[in-house]
Amino acid sequence: SMSDPAPLLLRASRHLLAKMGPAGFTVKGSAGAGNLAQVPWIAFLDPDVTNSAQEGIYVVYLWSVDAKTLYLCLSQGVTDVAKKHKANVLPRLRSEATKIRTLISNESNDLLAEISLGSKDRLPVQYEAATIAAIKYETNNLPSDTRLRSDLSRMTDLYGTAVGRKRTRLTEDPEAWEAGLPEL
């Protein structure tokens, strides 16, 4: 239930993780809204890019359905794309992820391009398709706090790089992208 230790810990962890993320970022997360989420998440949002995990690009921790795997991802919101392209949401998310991945290929060549959350349900499958780059951790063998902080810093730096390069490409060909970015 939502009052079990794991969802309570997840809600409390947002406040702790906010201290580790970049200054000015918003930290949001969900163990579910009313019901437990199959894939709990905690996102780091740059308010110059997005204020919601439903749209835009952001950094997010995603737990697999069995909770044995934790991913740190550069990802994109799925909700707005799903509303616009109901039947074509997965190809649209994958295409946008591939385009962004290409923009940061030198900086992300050692990162995962795909993740597996262990579910065939709508949201986890959309989260997988939306992933741009990721680092995988086994929850029973997490690295040191120093490494986790370093990886988070690397991913937020990659986030800034991806957004900057996408902004440049948007000015050149805005129709080639699924979603824009807010004006600075």
Radius of gyration: 16 Å
Mean pLDDT: 85
- What amount of the residues lies in strands? 15-25%
Succession of helices and strands: HEEEEHHHHEH
Q: How many individual helices?
A: 6
What does this structure look like?
The model has no long low-confidence stretch (mean pLDDT 85). This protein has helices at 5-18, 79-84, 89-103, 105-108, 122-130, 145-172, and strands at residues 26-30, 41-45, 57-63, 69-76, 133-138. It is of the alpha+beta class and 184 residues long. The radius of gyration is 16 Å and the shape is globular. A five-stranded antiparallel beta sheet has the order 1-2-3-4-5.
How are the SSEs placed, and which strands pair?
Elements: H1 5-18, E1 26-30, E2 41-45, E3 57-63, E4 69-76, H2 79-84, H3 89-103, H4 105-108, H5 122-130, E5 133-138, H6 145-172
Antiparallel strand pairs: 1-2, 2-3, 3-4, 4-5
What would you say about this model in short?
This protein is of the alpha+beta class.
Essential attributes:
single chain, 184 residues, alpha+beta, five-stranded antiparallel sheet, 6 helices, 5 strands, globular
